[in-house]
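Researcher: Please predict.
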Amino acid sequence: MSEYDTLTSEEKVAAYQACSQVFDGLFKEMRELSKKKADATLSKGKVKILNRVLDDVRDVLAGEPEAKYLDPLDDEDLPQNSDAVLVMVQYESALQAFYGRYHKSYLSDFGHDVWLTEERMGSS
């Protein structure tokens, strides 16, 4: 076992890196929409786009403590912009927790930044 309490996998890190950038872009756009029209209802198309990314984030965070708080947006009773932003804040917090748990900055043999993965730390 590794000296580190928690490790993730290289596969999860790659998935995190792929979906977190897309999520960040969508979240920024939703915040802007919410500032302009907080009570406007999202279209089914927007909910579908957002849920595709939120599904990927939930997959990355499966098994993490924060995962139990992550629900998709309701595509039947369409949410308002402000509701979508509130849901997305939960996802942002969960992504930040994942990053904080598994990404460390060290001046060591690893260089400056390192992901704490089973593969890198030699654990199986």
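Model: Residues 11 and 65 are 19 Å apart (CA to CA).
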